Amino acid sequence: MDYTFLRDLFSGKLELKDIIQAVYGLNYIEYQTLEILISLKEADVTAIMEKLGRNDRVLVNRCLKKLRECKLVERRKESAEGKRGYWYVYTMVNLEVFRNKLREILDHWHATSVEKVNDLENYFEYLTGVKEKKDEEEEETAE
Fold first, then answer.
1. Residue 137: its pLDDT value, please?
2. Structural domain span for residue 122
């Protein structure tokens, strides 16, 4: 675990992009792809490749797959009338959907963290061996 991230989080040094990357597990290029889709509103793989300055269709497709798995990006199939073949156009999900999902994940993380802190006594007892002794005593009295 990257404790530098947590330290920055609690000190207020993080930017929104850092939080988004951490929550969704996005690397730099995946986040750059997301920013491009936000700025362009919609784009195909070629347009994203141009904006990234990379001539790597596989890399861009991999980034888009990850963003779709995170439910941050949607795609639709398009084709030219009278021609064979098709391509995909990608768009960012609705801002409100994105905001609500991000809040839901962060709220869950916060609630889980508070539970862990509230359970500190049990954790200390476990580390010192007191909990094991209590459990053994309870088992003996139950018999």
1. 64
2. 94-143
